[in-house]
Amino acid sequence: MSSAISINRLGWQAFFQQQLHLEELEHASIARVCGHHRNGYLLHTIQGTLTLHANSALPEMTLGDWLLLDEQQHFVRLLERKSLFKRKAAGTRVTEQLIAANVDTLFIVCSLNQDFNLSRIERYLALAHEATVTPVVVLTKQDLCADVEDKRQAVQALDPFLQVETVNALDKDSCSSLLAYCGAGQTLSLLGSSGVGKSTLVNSLLGYDIQKTATIREDDSKGRHTTTARTMHFLPSGAVLIDTPGMRELQLTECETGVRQTFADIEQLAQQCRFNDCQHQSEPGCTIQQAIATGELEPRRLSNYLKLLAEQAHNSASLQQRHAQDRQFGRMVKTVSTVSRKLKKGY
Ligand SMILES: Nc1nc2c(ncn2[C@@H]2O[C@H](COP(=O)(O)OP(=O)(O)O)[C@@H](O)[C@H]2O)c(=O)[nH]1
Ligand SMILES: [Mg+2]
Ligand SMILES: [Zn+2]
């Protein structure tokens, strides 16, 4: 073990402290998952890092999880999570793959150049809401954009309470507005398409005092030092940044709550439609179509809402169900083509 670190520096918060029983306060030690490999979990404790070897009694844990160890450093229990990103994994046995836990703020990174896309931001917002993580939209490459303010307002219009920041990720001073979310004890993560500036942003956030973010090392079973800090960074501002490739593979699966929350304006309009089962297409008394007619609601937003709801429902269906759907669809196509052949032949 090496690199002693304070519990605050690891991102400990009252929410977790409150879960401890009196006896645990005295005897248990607190650890945070900072890595996961075949042999087990890599943990940070205030004394340094250690490996918790895999065994069947351990619950499934992920980056950012908090757990208690006894005096022999055996697993005691996993603490209740504040938030959780997970994805559905294909295959028969594992159905869910946990990606990151206990993230407070998600930086939704989107560039202000050609890649700027409101529907994509809405998709990421749905993922953040589903995980119960506070989203902050970070618009990068402001130095390459001529209409920064228009684009910023277009994002703000998605949700009046949404935090929206614009930066030049290459310029540390320009990123200082993000420090408001990077205080001591906060845990952050990033999500965004490739090339938008996520790595640049991480470097800028780390770069304020990069010498102090010493690499944390761990002795593996062969006595070698291996770097374990790749996915968990300790920012000079006091926050913990979880940067994992898993975030890039997040899909909209079982994300209905997240989608509905992201489109709360549409959900509210829908409650006033004349019919309970209104599809918001051409039914009379549809408040949503009225809002589109008056310009209050963008047609793009409605179609993205319907698309994301459908997508998450499709992805949530089990593989078996999906195969059944595909077979049904195949039969339908066959029927349609038979009918049209018959029509052509003049039956
Ligand atoms: N001009 C400008 N270039 C940027 C900005 N952010 C990132 N870049 C550049 O965009 C490219 C992709 O950035 P990178 O951080 O690797 O994106 P990632 O794939 O999201 O990690 C790199 O060449 C960066 O230097 C920015 O705010 N302004
Ligand atoms: Mg990158
Ligand atoms: Zn309607």
SSE arrangement:
Elements (H helix, E strand, L loop, with lengths): L13 H4 L4 H6 L1 E9 L2 E6 L2 E6 L12 E4 L5 E4 L5 E5 L7 E6 L3 E7 L6 H13 L3 E7 L7 H9 L6 E4 L20 E5 L6 H9 L10 E3 L5 E3 L4 E3 L5 E3 L13 H7 L1 H7 L16 H7 L5 H18 L2 H27 L2
Parallel strand pairs: 8-9, 8-11, 9-10, 11-15
Antiparallel strand pairs: 1-2, 1-4, 2-3, 4-5, 6-7, 12-13, 14-15
The structure holds guanosine-5'-diphosphate, magnesium ion (MG) and zinc ion.
The site of guanosine-5'-diphosphate has 15 residues, from helix 5.
The CATH homologous superfamily of the largest domain is called: P-loop containing nucleotide triphosphate hydrolases
Main pleated-sheet profile: 6 strands, mixed
How much of the sequence is in beta strands? 15-25%
Taken together, the total number of domains comes to 3
Which class of secondary structure composition applies to the elements?
A: alpha/beta
**CATH topology annotation of the largest domain:** Rossmann fold
The residue ranges in which pLDDT falls below 50 over 5 or more consecutive positions are 208-229
Overall geometric form: globular
**DSSP E strands, number:** 15
**Major sheet: order of its strands?**
10-9-8-11-15-14
CATH class category of the largest domain: Alpha Beta
Q: State the helicity in percent bands.
A: 25-40%
